[in-house]
Structures are given as C-alpha cells and as structure tokens.
Specification:
Largest sheet: 8 strands, parallel, barrel
Strand order of the largest sheet: 8-9-10-11-12-13-14-15
Strand content: 25-35%
Bound molecules: 8-OXO-guanosine-5'-triphosphate
Shape: globular
CATH class of the largest domain: Alpha Beta
Helix content: 25-40%
Radius of gyration: 20 Å
Structural class: alpha/beta
CATH architecture of the largest domain: Alpha-Beta Barrel
Number of strands: 15
Length: about 325
C-alpha cells in the first residue's frame, strides 16, 4: 500500500534548566491521548521552520526567536508516511500554554518518557538522553593516574558522557582502566562507551560501544549494546551509521587537530551540509573545546566531542 507522505515540523522546546516540553494530544485527534512534541503539518508554500513557528503560535501562544534544525525521522503510520522535521527551540517570547493539548509537561531528558508516546518518537527521546559533551580518554598518553584525576574533576564539573579510547594500553591494563572509568561515571549517573570492542564493553559494564570508521565499514548489523555510535568523516559513513540504526555519530575533524597534523578541518559550513536531514544526532569533533558548544549546535551538531579539549588541566 502506498501511503501519502506528510511533512511534519515538531519542536523540542528546551528550557534553561534542561527540561523540554511534551504535550498530550487532545481527545478529538488521531492518536488521542498520546504524548508528542508540539508541532504539526507543513502547509503548501511553507518551509518546515515556518510551519513550526506558525504551529507553536497556534498551539502554545509563543513566538519563536531561535530555532535550529536537529533531526529528520521518517515513520510509516497506518494513516500516512510521516516525515518529521525536528527542531530545537531554545528561545521564544511568551509563556507556553496549552491551546490544543489536554496537558503540557516540562520533563527532564533522563526521566522516563510520558506514556503513551507517539510511536515515531522513541529515537528522539533517546537522543535527548545523550549528553552534549563527550570526553574521550587518552590515558595512554597522559598516564592513568592523571587521566583518572582529570575525569574526577570533569565529572564534578558536570561531564556525563565518556568514551574510553586507549589503543596504546595493553589489554589487561585497558580493562582495568575501563572498569575504573565505568565505576566513576556511573557513580554520577553518566554514560560510558568503549571504543572498538563490544565484548569488552559488556565485560566491564559499559553502556555501549563506539565504532571506529574501519569497523563501521565492515559491520552488517548493529552490535548488541544499549548504546552504539561511530566515527564518521563523510556523508557516506554518516548514512551507513543511520542505516545500521546507530544512536549517534561523531563527525570531524571540524578544525585541524594535534592528533591529525596536516589534515585540513571540514569547517562549520561543510559540517552543516553533511549533517542535514540525518535521523541521528551528530557530535562535532576535532580541535574543539567546550566553549565551541553554541557554535556547534547552531551548525546542526547535537554537541561536541573532544580529547585534549575536554580535560581541563
Ligand atoms: N506534532 C507532532 N506530530 C508527530 C510527532 N510524532 C509523530 O509521529 N507525529 C505525527 O505527525 C503527524 C502530525 O499531525 P498533527 O495532527 O499534529 O498535525 P496538525 O497539527 O497540522 O493537525 P491537523 O491534522 O488537525 O491539521 C501525525 O501523524 C502524528 O502522529 C510529534 O512529536 N509531534
């Protein structure tokens, strides 16, 4: 059966305290009583961004002053093939109040979602649980004790996402180090990804695995871990990560880095072109610092990942 394709714009309204807005669909709608992000169908002659601004005015009585394209997801419902253009909305005028939803609720990303949730939205809620800053370890270079001390400081500063990437440590040392990282990060409620080794990730109790591009290229299916991401350098690799159903991708290098001397960075314009219309969140990598976060998010990144830039001295 061919279903008609419907373009929809939906907004993730993010408050300064990290909560985002969900609404419960009213009684006289398709999927009545289901929770959703505010938004609606794109009308003829509108861009998705224009449609979202109109819908948020109609549904919530607010005027959007800052929005960023975020992710695009397609879903086949009984009634339609829906293409959902998700935007992050971080600034608006007016106080949202429910004009069409039966209830509005500001929820914390790490909290359980509201049920029932519109079926297309599961990956969106998962993406919202992915912290914005990923710090990548380099204990092989700076020493295990120095790296763990830097980790403790960063966790105290709010870091909640760590990738253990230690090609220079031998396997028993890598396992011991990874266990230390998992204990510390889990103690703060954060996530740990282990680079390149799904079995070790499971053994040490990490939350998932991060695939180097060479592994992404040869895998035919997603490793069996709760969280899986991959390093990407071009559109082909990003699309492969999407096809495998991965939870996130890293894309870089955005700027030249000490670890890849002589390699030119993509720059933000190219970064934006490469991530447009993807169904998964992408973190920008390469020569970046936490101070580059707003710039990265304006360019379409979910956040940033860093090795040297993430560990303050
Ligand atoms: N607004 C919104 N729609 C979503 C989300 N997730 C999702 O699958 N959809 C789907 O996208 C479509 C949006 O339809 P809608 O009924 O909200 O559109 P609308 O406001 O223009 O209403 P209308 O049908 O009365 O014109 C529905 O098929 C809905 O199931 C979401 O988070 N927010």
């Amino acid at each position: 059966m061919t279903r008609k394709r419907v373009e929809v714009a939906a907004g993730v309204l993010l408050r300064a305290d990290g909560r985002y807005l969900l609404g419960q669909r009213g009684p006289d709608t398709v999927y009545a009583g289901y929770w959703e992000f505010p938004g609606g169908k794109v009308e003829a002659g509108e861009t998705p961004a224009q449609a979202l601004c109109r819908e948020l005015d109609e549904e919530l009585g607010i005027r959007v002053t800052h929005l960023r394209p975020w992710m695009l997801r397609e879903h086949l419902y009984e009634h339609a093939h829906v293409r959902l253009h998700f935007f992050e909305v971080s600034a608006w005028e007016g106080e949202p109040h429910g004009k069409v939803h039966s209830v509005l609720d500001w929820v914390l990303p790490e909290q359980a979602t509201r049920e029932p949730m519109l079926p297309a939205n599961g990956p969106i809620l998962k993406a919202l649980r992915l912290p914005r800053l990923m710090a990548i370890t380099h204990a092989g270079e700076q020493g295990i004790d120095a790296q763990l001390a830097a980790l403790d400081r960063a966790l105290a500063d709010g870091l909640r996402l760590v990738q253990v990437r230690e090609p220079a440590l031998d396997s028993s040392l890598r396992e011991r180090f990874a266990r230390e990282v998992v204990a510390r990060v889990h103690g703060c409620g954060g996530l740990v990804l282990l680079n390149g080794d799904p079995d070790l990730a499971r053994t040490v109790g990490a939350d998932g695995v991060h695939l180097p591009a060479r592994m992404l290229a040869i895998l035919n299916e997603r490793p069996d871990c709760p969280w899986v991401g991959a390093s990407c350098h071009d559109r082909g690799e990003l699309e492969r990560a999407a096809t495998l159903g991965l939870d996130y991708a890293l894309l870089g290098p955005v700027a030249p880095t000490a670890s890849h001397p002589g390699q030119a960075g993509l720059g933000w314009t190219r970064f934006t072109e490469l991530v447009a219309g993807l169904p998964l969140p992408v973190l920008a990598l390469g020569g970046l610092q936490p101070e580059n976060m707003e710039k990265a998010r304006d360019a379409g990144a979910h956040g940033i990942a860093a090795i040297r830039g993430a560990w303050s001295v």
